[in-house]
Amino acid sequence: MIKCPECGSAQYEGTLFCSECGRFLVETAQNITAQLPFAQFGRLPTPPPQIEEELELLASSKEITFFIPSRRERLQRQLQNEIRVGRADEDAGYIPELDLTGYDGVAHGVSRVHATIQLTNQGIVVVDLGSTNGTYLNNYRLTAQQPYLLASGDEILFGDLLVHIFFDL
Amino acid sequence: MMTEQPNYYAILGVDKHASLEEIHEAFATWRIKLKEAEQLESTQYQQIAYAYEVLSDSDRRTLYDSLLQETSAESVLEVHALLSRSKIGVLDTPQVVYLLVNVHPPQQAEDARLPLNLCLVLDRSTSMNGERLERVKTAVEMVLDKLGPEDVISVVSFSDRAEVLLPAGRVHNKVRLLSRVKSMLASGGTEIYQGLKTGVEEMRQVSLSQHINHLILLTDGHTYGDEALCVQLAKETAVQGIGITAFGIGLEWNDKFLDRLVAPSSGQSGYIDDPMQIIEYLEKRIKGLGAVYAQNVQFHLNFPNAVYMRYGFKMTPYAQPIDKEKEYVKLGDIEGRRPLSFLLELSIDPQPIQTRIKLPVHLTAVIPGKKLQKYTFKQDLQLMVLKTPLQEEPPEAVLRAVRMLNMYRMNEKVWEDVEAGNVEMATTRMRHLTTRFLEAGQTQLARQAQMEVDRLANVGDLSLEGRKTLKFGTRALLNQTMSLLLNGDEAGEHD
Question: Which residue among B89, B98, B433 sits closest to A13, beta carbon to beta carbon?
Answer without folding.
Answer: B89
